[in-house]
Amino acid sequence: MQQFSDEELIAQSRLRGPASPSDPYVEELFRRHHRKVALWCLRYAAGREDALDLAQEVLAQTFRRLDSFQGNSKFSTWLYTICRNHCLNHVKSRATQPVTAGDDALAFLAAPGLGPMEDQLARRQQLQLARGWIRDSLDETERRVFVMHFLDEMPLDAITRALGLTNASGAKAFIVSARRKLNESVRRWRLRNEP
Amino acid sequence: MNPEQPFRTAECLTPEQLEAVLEGRLPAAHAHLNACAACEQELANLREFLAAVPRPAEAQDLAWMESRLARPVQPRARRSWLSWLPTAPVPRFAFTCAAALLVLAGGLQLRHMAAPSLEDSQSLTVRSIQFRLLAPAGDLESAPPEFRWEPVAQAAGYEVQLTEVDGTLLWSARANQPNLPAPASIQDQLLPRKTLLWRVRALDDRGVTIAESQSERIRLLPAGQR
Predict the structure, then answer these.
(1) CA B9 to each of CA A47, B6, B61: distance values in angstroms, whole numbers, following the listed order
(2) How is A30-80 classified by DSSP, letter by letter?
């Protein structure tokens, strides 16, 4: 069994008919990967019991979809997308506080007083600028927190757990510092470009 | 979500492309990765998922979880995968009751069962019969204005589903005829190079599936290839 790649295990399993939980090839496939799923769920759940439920849901969902795996990527990458999406939905469904909408990430562009800049630039140019500021102003952790909060709409406490942040205020501190740096980038840009 | 925002660009990488980057098969993507915080984050996520290296504080909980996810060593006490399928725990006695009811119902059915009648074919289920999707299909130069498929004779309606390649449902809608306009929100989901799947189920007047299509892959070509 060890000689087979994940994709070969799936192919072998398909030769035996519809995927079955007791199929040794399926068993081997999930045995190889349940640690990945468990660890990911541990980072996205509130506690280990919650994480165990989440991991079982992900594995069951993966099993149910196994027939639709088309081999466009490796099985592990496919499993990642299922796990990621499931955990994100779980985290968002449990959020008690509404998260900031994605468009608020542009608040630094649309903030009062920036009218002249909006007048000067086409929207695409604004977006390119914003991407440049995110890339150049923020460190890697700030970028990750920023993307997880504003793009994936994850609550800050969930980001803190997922990234294993150990500072006192967790992800919030990185959002605050990211905003401060982005505001500073905007201010410097205005000094250079506005009359 | 609007794809044109600081985190998402039309060139953002698919999971397959991120995998290729990790394996050194797509050096051309590094320029985009250097400029795109979203793809940088996604790549970091994928790398961490595949590595599965616990932080010190996670090791104990991970071991606890693994001990419960793994099958027991003793063959006679092996835990079936079937036990993972229900999302909520089901009391053991419920299975016992269900089994007893099945046996009882089966016995009653056997007592009254006659030879199968040919009349049953009037309510035939043609789920095994598949019909073809007509458009869109394959690589597209622009977002499709509508979805079209072959009509199914006994269908009272159709359900169209658009999904990610991993099966995540993005959109679902019903139609009374074998075509359906693609709403603007769906056209926004079609990012260049991102493969999506769509399929159709034919329904009878009770909403029961009577036939279903294969999934069709669609992908919007990047601007330079149109």
Answers:
(1) 35, 8, 38
(2) HHHHHHHHHHHHHHHSSSHHHHHHHHHHHHHHHHHHGGG--SSS-HHHHHH
Q: Quick: pLDDT tens for A95-124.
A: 654 444 334 444 544 443 444 555 545 666
Kindly state whether A27 is in contact with chain B, defined as any CB-CB distance less than 8 angstroms: yes
Min Cα distance A159 → chain B (Å) is 12
Rounded-to-integer distance, Cα A10 and Cα A19, Å = 9
Sequence-ordered strand ranges (E) for B30-104:
none
Alpha-carbon distance of A25 to A154, in angstroms, equals 36
Q: Which of B7, B14, B16 should we substitute to test contact with A (largest number of A Cβ atoms within 10 Å)?
A: B7
Report the gap between the CA of A178 and the closest CA in chain B (Å).
13
B195-203 and B216-220 beta bridge pairing = antiparallel
pTM of the entire predicted model:
0.56
- DSSP letters along A125-154, please? HHHHHHHHHHHHHS-HHHHHHHHHHHTS--
Q: What are phi and psi of B24, to 5 degrees?
A: 75, 20
Nearest Cα neighbor of B85 from A30, A99, A144 is A30
Task: Note whether B132 contacts A: Cβ–Cβ < 8 A.
Answer: no
